[in-house]
Structure formats: C-alpha cells, structure tokens
Design a protein that fits this description.
Blueprint (H helix, E strand, L loop, with lengths): L4 E3 L3 E2 L2 H11 L4 H4 L1 H4 L11 H6 L1 H8 L7 E14 L8 E15 L2 E12 L7 E11 L4
Antiparallel strand pairs: 1-4, 2-4, 3-6, 4-5, 5-6
Length: about 140
C-alpha cells in the first residue's frame, strides 16, 4: 500500500462554492467574492480561498477511491504538515487531487495512522495549487 497513488476526477471550483465558503468563514475579501473588483487585480478575477482548497481534499480523496484498509469502522482527520498554497485558483477552474501513500503504521491494536502526500492540480497549469502532507487515523474492527 505504501507508494500507492490515487487520482481523483476533475472538480469545478465555482463562484457559488467560494461565496458559500466566504459566508461560512466570514472571509469576504474582495479577491474572493467581488468579480468586478477582483478583475482589476493581478489575478484577473476572483480566486478560491486557500483553506477552501484544503477543505476539498477529503472530497477529492473519496472520488479517487480512498485507500482501502480492511475492516475500517471509523476514520479520523489527524492533521496536516507542510501545507503550501503554491498558486491561486481562479473561480471556474477545475482541480483534482493526486494522493500518494507515504506511510502507514499500526499505532495500537486496531488503530492505524496513514500519511498521504496530497497535491491539488489545476487543469491547464504546470504548478499545483497546493501541496500538503495529510495524516489520518483509522480504527479497525479486529473481529472482521
């Protein structure tokens, strides 16, 4: 399983998605929610919040065919390391996740920790939108 690579399908980052994230977080900076004003910036239009992109990783991983661990009854998001927002993502762009299993270890009987190297790619761009090391823990039904 270590070294396995999972790639999601493409997902459109819509203005509606960005607006809803702005409402949820209170981050209504014009570069995210005001297309006319944002068009006058070096971005040329509105861009997604970095934390919105990070929050899309679980959705993209599920679409990629989440790495199967036999008998899993619960998954827990343990955190991230080395998160970097490499380039902005304009609204209307399509992104996908590329996930590589960097490590998986049994931490206790029936409890595993998996480390994924995650990259969010932007269709038509050479550089990723973000890179992160994502850590999850899984509880396994040992009777299964």
């Amino acid at each position: 399983m270590k070294g396995a690579v999972y790639t999601s399908g493409w997902l459109t980052v819509s203005q509606q998605m960005v607006d809803r994230f702005a409402d949820a977080t209170g981050d209504h900076q014009y570069i995210h929610v005001d297309p006319e004003r944002a068009a006058k910036t070096p971005f040329g239009g509105t861009i997604a919040h970095g934390f919105l992109l990070l929050s899309l990783l679980p959705r993209l991983l599920a679409d990629a065919g989440r790495p199967a661990i036999p008998g899993v009854v619960m998954g827990i998001n343990y955190g991230t390391d080395r998160v970097r927002f490499v380039q902005p993502v304009r609204t209307g762009s399509e992104v996908r996740g590329l996930f590589t299993v960097a490590d998986i270890q049994e931490k206790a009987p029936g409890r595993y920790q998996q480390v994924l190297d995650a990259e969010m790619q932007v269709q038509g761009q050479d550089k990723p939108a973000l890179i992160a090391r994502w850590i999850g823990q899984f509880v396994v039904d040992t009777a299964a």
